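Is S-adenosylmethionine placement plausible here? Inputs below.
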Amino acid sequence: MKINYLRVSVTDCCNLNCIYCRPLSLANHVPRSKLLRFEEIRDFVALAVQWGIDKVRITGGEPLVRNNIVNLVEMLSQIKGIRDLTMTTNGVRLEEFAQELKQAGLSRINVSLDSLDRERFTHITGYDKLLEVLRGIKAARKVGLDPVKINVVILKGVNEEEILKFVSFGLEQGLIIRFIEYMPIGGIGQNNRYLPNNFAKEIIERKWGGLEPLSSYNGSPAKYFKIRGTHSRLGFINSISRPFCSSCSRLRLTAKGELRPCLFTNFGVNLKKALGKKDKETKREEIKALFDLAVRNKVKRELSSLSNPQKKHQKAPSKFNSEIKERSAAFIEGNMFQIGG
Ligand code: SAM
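Reply from A.M.:
I modeled the complex. Tokens:
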């Protein structure tokens, strides 16, 4: 599999505290002095582009809480060879930044939003910020960050009754709604909150009729479908019921400069020292060796045997539980904000 997608986490801080993610409970945030500087991120990305990366996503924590984040977007947008420069945000500060991000060269944006109900949103995130997020989404569309994709994590017993509401929201506002399977790690970390995406798909098909499969684009982990008779697209990211290891084209750069091949392993290489090298050639050589090492350590195993997509509302089998423990260890050890859309 060609590795062409780099996720860059610019901070592990967040201005929300979602029950399934809980960034505020991480006592040890990376101190500011340990964060990769924008110049270091730019230098790494400029090299990585020579080795096949052509898609870059800025993420976090919450990327819009990192000071001067627009400057980083501008720096990255000037690197030739990036055909897709995107960001994943919770949207709380998006209204404020949408125009500048667009001007700086961001191609499009993903917004994470798990409820359209103000009270439930507050329950999930710990903050009464739904209206800010909705204004942010509107602003993103207005400035032409197109398409705006909305990432919805479905949690059993929390927000599954909003599945159809989200589909209508997408249709009305011209947004691509993507349902993401909850990974029982970090945060509430409860297997009994997990719902396979088949559940959402069935509910949607009962109301809207069979969804029309679309071919995946951009190596996205999402399976896309069209609602018949509309131009609206829906995405399903089945990280648990249909793991996509074999088609994974991603590397992850953490806020403090570790390059990680995937979520399923503790393995990571630290780029900080190499990025500090004065001699250009030595720097390039050292970073290339670390890049190759990370790529070689991408997990190749197929996890599809760990879940049974036939069963609805399935309880995780014990084999699955141990996998989750492994993932959770990788997360705690690494950077738990590196997941999802
Ligand atoms: N703060 C930004 C945001 O909210 O989009 C970027 C970081 S956030 C951790 C990235 C994505 O990971 C969000 O869409 C979030 O919903 C998703 N995520 C976090 N924990 C998750 C979990 N346990 N299972 C599934 N998705 C999760």
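Short version: The radius of gyration is 19 Å.
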